[in-house]
Amino acid sequence: MLAPAKINLTLRVFPKREDGYHDLDSVVVPLAFGDGVTVERAERTALEVVPDGVDLGAMPEDPERNLAVRAVRLLERETGRPLPVRIRIVKRIPLGGGLGGGSSDAAAVLRETDRVYGLGLGRARLSELGAELGSDVPLFVADGTVRMTGRGERVERWAMEGAEPLWAVLVNCGCACPTGKVYGAFDADPGAACADNLTLRNDFCDTLRLSLRNGDTDGVARQLVNDLQAPCFSCFPEVARSAQALREAGCGTVLLSGSGATVFALVRSRKEGEKVLSAPALCGFRRVCAQTLPDGVMAAHGPLTPIVMVRIHVGQPGCV
Question: What is the arithmetic mean of pLDDT over 9-16?
Answer without folding.
Answer: 94
